[in-house]
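Saturday, quiet lab. Running sequence design on the structure tokens for the scaffold JK sent over.
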């Protein structure tokens, strides 16, 4: 059984990461085991050139684990231009969690909370040209009339109440 997944979506520079930090801290305060998955449309590296793990990956290792008493990190090479589906990654790496919050994945079919700042855009991603049925709430810096609950942009406790009621009760 995989944990429920809720994605935080917005246009770049709107405050997705800031809201995610607050949601994670609030869910942890309530005793939940929380995972976070960040989507990056570009190539990224968690290793630093010259470090042992970087050297092992560069040498051709398909999977490199870095372990310590505090944490584990993994570099797993995907086949060229073949990102695994998010559901597969969640099933493989997050089964021991209560919930997974993602940043991005705006085109996915998972439940979404959209972050909205009026100065960034008048139009919502999930209620703009198309009506995304997976939108469950909006966190905004302005009052909006929508068919889903609208929370003040910094109301992590209120959003967590919604998440707990819908996915963790």
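Result came back. Writing it out in full:
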């Amino acid at each position: 059984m995989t944990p429920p997944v809720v994605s935080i979506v917005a246009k770049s520079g709107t405050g997705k990461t800031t809201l995610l930090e607050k949601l994670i801290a609030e869910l942890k305060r309530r005793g939940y085991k929380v995972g976070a998955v960040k989507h990056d449309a570009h190539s990224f590296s968690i290793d630093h050139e010259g470090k042992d793990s970087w050297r092992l990956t560069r040498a051709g290792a398909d999977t490199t684990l870095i372990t310590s008493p505090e944490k584990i990190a993994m570099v797993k090479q995907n086949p060229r231009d073949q990102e695994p589906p998010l559901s597969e990654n969640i099933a493989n790496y997050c089964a021991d969690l209560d919930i997974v919050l993602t940043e991005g994945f705006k085109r996915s079919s998972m439940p979404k909370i959209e972050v909205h700042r009026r100065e960034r855009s008048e139009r919502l991603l999930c209620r703009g040209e198309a009506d995304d049925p997976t939108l469950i709430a909006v966190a905004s810096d302005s009052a909006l009339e929508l068919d889903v609950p609208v929370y003040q942009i910094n109301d992590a406790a209120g959003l967590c109440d919604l998440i707990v009621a819908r996915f963790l009760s």
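Notes for JK: The mean pLDDT is 91. Helices lie at 16-29, 52-58, 86-93, 156-168. Ask whether to fix the surface positions before the next round.
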